[in-house]
Known about the structure:
By secondary structure, the chain is an alpha+beta fold. It has one domain (2-111): Aminopeptidase (3-Layer(aba) Sandwich). It is 35% helix and 33% strand. It has a seven-stranded mixed β-sheet with strand order 1-2-3-4-5-7-6, sandwiched between helices. A hairpin with a 2-residue loop joins strand 2 and strand 3. The protein is globular and about 40 Å long.
Amino acid sequence: xxxxxxxxxxxxxxxxxxxxIILNTPYYSSLAKKHEIKKYSTRNLxxxxxxxxxxxxxxxxxxxxxxxxxxxxxxxIFWIDWVGVHISFxxxxxxxxxxxxxxxxxxxxxxxKIWCDCLTTNKQSISLLKKLKFKKFALLKKHWxxxxxxxxxxxx
Length: 156
């Protein structure tokens, strides 16, 4: 397994994988899926790739993208937007590897805190965040896309 940063020649494949993962996310509403997929269009990815506020990390197996983590920098903290893993690579600690790589990268950038959200029904993400020592600090009722979310943080 190879973990590295998104490059121009990865964008088409990454966009396809993100779309597949988002469409197959059972706890996301139709509206959420529609809006989230737009973020991962090849056009949007090409624009964001060269914006230093954004960070995209990929996991590859035999040169094929099988997972990703992305987000953005904001005033010394980092917001994790998505962590996604291809269905055939789930249960293999790939999310842990991606987030550990992210944390090492962020420490080099003088980031002191990571934060993110997850749906209250997303048991896998809740388990992952607890395992990685994130702290739950808020419940947002009927928030993004009229769904319930937890907010999480971790000092690094």
